[in-house]
């Protein structure tokens, strides 16, 4: 079996199969879009008196028009906390978790009520879907969520997704709805992810400081320098600035899904995007990208522990696409059960992969450094030869995420 067997290809120089060397590639691409994830942020949805109902009505009109054209739309919507703040009369975003959750509880009902009214005017139904990161990290719940969303789409119902702020705890948070939109795009194998923001897109310089800063029309690859430039600065009502959008773009493009960031408050913005007009910033998908299950493992799961690997094991994983055997494990960190996701680290501390372990941490400590034939004598049983099978392992191919920064040690 070849390395990176779970990496899928689109033709080089194409956007999900549409050649980029033709002047009309953008209209041709959007003409072929069948499923889209659209995320709208708090900065777009809210005005001084509360929710900006004109924006909600505009979104409902444009999304309904897309539906009539055969495009399935999943809407990821912020706004619950901001809506609750306005109803309660809070001037500043709550800082502690109970206050945020209480504001979300007040605001979520009003948010969905306005969506329901707006879409009803176009004879379309909406469905509220509230998720926590645990729903995505757990493989069974992940698949259940996908099946539910597919069913809603097959019924021509628009799912409106938000993080379940009312009950979520910090370790189960997505972080922001940009990240949630990226994960939903992967979950549903969307053709495109559109982020409706309170800015036009990504700029070469901070537009708050440099008014003449040029807009970046397209991005081939999210770089570390871009993230450093974008760090800091979310709005008073939101949790995500441009940095969160770049991180979302890293996830979507790794799955072969392009992403667009554009100004959500402009009337008809979705009509512009889906007609193929050059608007906002277009993030091109990776030519070689991870398959769905590998994306889930790489980006949706949360590591329960870590394994320290010797150079031979790292080479077997990175260069040859092999399974991880106990002989290559030096140390075990953390306490975890079999089937848990763990990070795989090099001797110099770089994280190069993530995988689902076949043995719990206590048993694994008894077999590290041993050959597979010594597992049964050490444990009294043997379920697998491997600590992690290659089918349950993903190597991070992006240098900035750790993986291929690793190089074989030089021979002296």
Q: Your description of this structure?
A:
With 412 residues, this protein is an alpha/beta fold. It has two domains: 279 residues, 3-Layer(aba) Sandwich (Carbamate kinase), CATH 3.40.1160; 99 residues, Roll (Archaeosine Trna-guanine Transglycosylase, Chain: A, domain 4), CATH 2.30.130. The chain contains 15 helices and 19 strands. The strands form five sheets. The chain has an eight-stranded mixed beta sheet, sandwiched between helices. Strand 2 and strand 3 form a beta hairpin. Helix 3 crosses helix 5. The chain starts with 6 loop residues before the first strand and ends in a 17-residue tail after the last strand. The N terminus and C terminus are likely disordered.
